[in-house]
Design a protein that fits this description.
heterodimer; A: alpha+beta; Dipeptide-binding Protein, domain 1; Dipeptide-binding Protein, domain 3; 4-stranded antiparallel sheet; 31% helix; B: 309 residues; mainly alpha; 14 helices; transmembrane (chain B); nickel (chain B); nickel transport (chain B)
Chain lengths: 518, 309
């Protein structure tokens, strides 16, 4: 009897414990919708949680993906990569270094404040200040002393030197977004968790590492999204993202990995959307280190590698084998470039001329991305044929980055994503000698190419500018600081009934045009 | 008894300082620059250098360590996250309830299943039931969590569509991760209970109790189990300590925002303050569970209680 009572009481306690544990759910439960009710929440699976929602302190895709719904810029790019006004009604170029912006009137921030020229000045100065270290490369050409407010809706921005791509640069989700001075000042250090913008969605809540909830901003001047809320769930495991999409747990899943592409493609309930993006994966040489300071060695390695089948097998048809330093999605992509044929004899001959008839031993660095390790493994076997003994060193990202910045690498595999489709963004930071160690991890420098890259930043869009960039791409192919591997692709899966969503080649997809087809 | 508890708590301080020192050293000798990770790969080097200076990362190692301990002990300030700029205690407390829920549920499953299975297996040694339990326990111990997790997701989420495959929002979401995480503990507790019971059942006093004509169930449940439970409690306690440390793999597979996942992300981002505080929290949780286990001993075994003074 006593025992029975004791067992019963233990069971009661357990039941209470489980009940209480299960009972304290957290936000994010919106993700689960009951059947039969009108679905007014869009659930999106992303691969990473945002780092912060302060646009000046980070420059990662996961954060930009959220910020693209909350914030707006003076200008933005349309589907054809043409500049269109977003918060600016119109703009003029006063001279080579000066631009005038006429702002839209009556634009409201999420906190009710009106958007004015003072906010523009505040935002640009903050991006130029120490808070803006992560976006310096975007706004660095602006002269802080040359930002002049003419009235509440007119502002003049001056540059340090002529810079023809300035307008494209300020479409960047980060350096170019417009903040509200009052909101930033009030939030202080916590601004990254309390963002205020003018975009179609406003920030509602954030469970770190799990989900961010955005709420429709009903006072937006012209965009009226169909979904009342958006839940962005961070699901780093690629397979889990696909499964959640298949089971209806999410409506849209970003970054469907090559191995899951057929599964999504063949599923009648799902839609697979693909868009070639602005990324290039490459094998870089440290051009300041022997033997890679010799262009013949670099070319020999390029000829010994058979990149096309390598990329096709590793990425399983996602993206395209790369032909040059920028991809086909970029403006002025040189269509005359081609992928060189593998030629072992020629490669051996070049190595001999360079003084390495027997080949040599070296090391290739990569981070722990599976595709990169796979490519390195294939390179290892292909380079054996010309006597090069390649060791693979897999590093964790932070250590990898530190090594690259300190010129410790010989060969390395990495990628670059342009944040706008102007060729300057895919060439200047990577090949100009002033950028060595910053993003030019090949430590490549060539006076002629430097000069052309500088000219490209001054010329307005024209046949002349196109010609210049065609030549730059040819010269870079000729000097071979990289072996070009792959131009990436945005692969997004959606449920069949989600319409109006288009992936962006920049990787931060706009969600406010999505709706459900009843 | 109170003295004993106070002594145990006092002993915690050197343990925590030791743990902090080890983690601090390991973080500082690992390549990778927190300032660079915080600002992103495109930030200019001078900005990174300036931030390093502000973070105090250029000071000598022992100065940094001393400052950290001083602030932690005298100002109860464990610093702010380099990335989110929020106090680390807040960052840890945000994810702690999730980890607590997950580990408590797994533990409940492990105890509810493990102890009865172990008892029945021991009492019916070499029976079919015993063999089945042993086989399952073997599978449970050898099956890696991530593998079991993926298999369960494939079966219950993809094939049958019964349970969600990620998140931790409702009871339905909690079933798979708790079972997956608890599987190993079930196996360990089952085997421990079984072997411990077998040992006790063979002892003289059990024969005496039986000779006195006690009912078999009473012999097992009252006399044998009480003695057999001591090693089981130890094992269960250690298991719970591990689980509280954030079941990293389970949290990653099921996308659960717990302490384990926060730590992994923070290590990747070189967010030193969060990693430090996270390890401290795990050390405290572990010590706390150990203390609880020792106190439970006293409750279960009067001989041990007599030693506490």
């Amino acid at each position: 009897m006593v025992n029975k009572r004791r067992i019963l009481s233990i069971l009661c306690i357990l039941a209470l414990l489980i009940g209480s544990l299960a009972g304290c759910g957290q936000s994010g439960e919106q993700a689960a919708t009951d059947e039969g009710t009108v679905k007014d929440t869009l659930v999106v699976a992303t691969s990473y949680d945002a780092k912060t929602l302060d646009p000046h302190t980070t420059n990662d895709i996961a954060s930009s993906s959220v910020m693209a719904q909350i914030y707006e810029n003076l200008l933005t790019l349309d589907d054809n990569n043409e500049l269109v006004g977003q918060l600016a009604e119109k703009w003029e170029k006063l001279d080579d270094k000066t631009y005038k912006f006429y702002l839209k009137k009556g634009v409201k921030f999420h906190n009710g404040e009106e958007f004015k020229a003072s906010d523009v000045k505040f935002s640009l100065l903050r991006a130029l200040n120490k808070e803006g270290s992560a976006v310096k490369h975007v706004v660095g050409e602006i002269d802080p002393d040359q930002i002049k407010i003419e009235d509440d809706y007119t502002i003049v921005v001056g540059l340090k030197r002529p810079f023809s791509v300035f307008l494209t640069y300020i479409t960047h989700i980060g350096g170019g977004v417009m903040l509200n001075e009052k909101a930033v000042t009030e939030a202080g250090d916590d601004y990254g968790m309390n963002p205020v913008g003018t975009g179609p969605y406003k920030f509602k809540s954030w469970v770190k590492g799990d989900n961010i909830v955005l709420e429709r901003f009903d006072e937006h001047r012209n965009i009226k999204p169909k979904f009342k809320e958006i839940v962005l769930r961070a699901i780093p495991e690629a397979t889990s993202r696909t499964i959640e999409l298949e089971s209806g747990g999410v409506d849209i899943a970003y970054n469907i990995v090559p191995t899951d592409v057929p599964r999504v493609d063949e599923n009648p309930d799902l839609e697979l959307l693909r868009k070639v993006n602005l990324s290039t994966q490459y094998l870089g040489f440290n051009c300041e280190k022997e033997p890679f300071n010799d262009v013949k060695v670099r070319k020999a390695i390029g000829l010994a590698l058979s990149t096309k089948p390598m990329v096709e097998s590793v990425f399983r048809g996602v993206g395209k084998p790369a032909m040059g330093p920028i991809g086909p999605g970029a403006k002025y992509f040189n269509k005359d470039l081609h992928i060189p044929e593998r030629n072992i004899e020629e490669a051996k001959k070049l190595l001999e001329e360079a003084g390495y008839p027997e080949g040599f031993s070296t090391e290739v660095w990569t981070n722990d991305r599976k595709e990169r390790i796979d490519m390195a493994t294939i390179m290892q076997s292909q380079l054996k044929e010309i006597g090069i003994d390649l060791k693979i060193q897999v590093l964790e990202w932070s250590a990898y980055l530190e090594g690259l910045k300190n010129s410790r690498q010989s060969l390395y595999i990495v990628g670059w994503t342009m944040s706008a489709p102007d060729p300057d963004m895919g060439l200047y930071p990577l090949f100009h000698s002033s950028m060595k160690g910053s993003n030019n991890f090949s430590y490549f420098g060539d006076e002629e190419i430097d000069k052309m890259l500088e000219d490209g930043r001054i010329l307005e869009d024209s046949a002349e500018r196109q010609e210049l960039y065609y030549t730059i791409q040819e010269k870079i192919v000729e000097k071979a600081p990289w072996v070009f591997l792959q131009n990436g692709e945005e692969v997004v899966g959606t449920r069949k009934n989600i319409k109006g969503f288009k992936p962006s080649p920049m990787g931060y997809h706009i969600l406010y045009n999505a709706y459900i087809e009843e | 008894m109170h003295k004993y508890i106070l002594r145990r708590i006092a002993l915690l301080l050197p343990v925590l300082i030791g743990v902090t020192f080890v983690v601090f050293t390991m973080l500082h000798i690992t390549p990778g620059d927190p300032a660079r990770m915080a600002l992103g790969e495109q930030a200019p080097q001078e900005a990174v250098d300036k931030l390093r200076e502000e973070m105090g990362l250029n000071d000598p190692f022992f100065v940094q360590f001393g400052r950290y301990v001083y602030k932690g002990v005298f100002e109860q300030d464990l610093g702010r996250s380099y990335i989110t700029k929020r106090p680390v205690s807040q960052e840890i407390m945000n994810v702690f309830p999730t980890t607590l829920k997950l580990s408590a549920l797994s533990m409940v499953i492990a105890v509810i299943l493990g102890i009865p299975f172990g008892i029945i297996s021991a009492v019916k040694q070499y029976s079919t039931f015993d063999s089945i339990v042993l086989i399952f326990a073997m599978i449970g111990i050898s099956m890696p969590v991530f593998w079991l997790g993926i298999l369960m997701i494939l079966l219950f989420s993809v094939k049958l569509g019964l349970l969600p495959s990620s998140g931790f929002y409702s009871v339905k979401h909690m079933i798979l991760p708790s079972v997956v995480l608890g599987a190993q503990s079930v196996a360990i507790i089952t085997r421990m209970t079984r072997s411990s019971m077998l040992e006790v059942i063979r002892q003289d006093f059990i024969r005496t109790v039986r000779a006195k004509g006690q009912r078999e169930r009473k012999v097992i449940m009252r006399h044998a189990l009480r003695n057999a439970l001591i090693p089981v409690i130890t094992v269960a306690g250690v298991q719970f300590g591990y689980l509280l440390g954030g079941a990293v793999l389970t949290e990653v597979i099921f996308s659960i925002p717990g302490v384990g996942r926060l730590m992994v992300e923070s290590i990747k981002m070189r967010d030193y303050p969060i990693v430090q505080a996270g390890v401290l929290y795990i050390a405290v949780a572990f010590s706390f569970v150990n203390l609880m286990v020792d106190l439970l001993y006293a409750y279960v075994d009067p001989r041990i209680k007599a030693q506490y003074h």
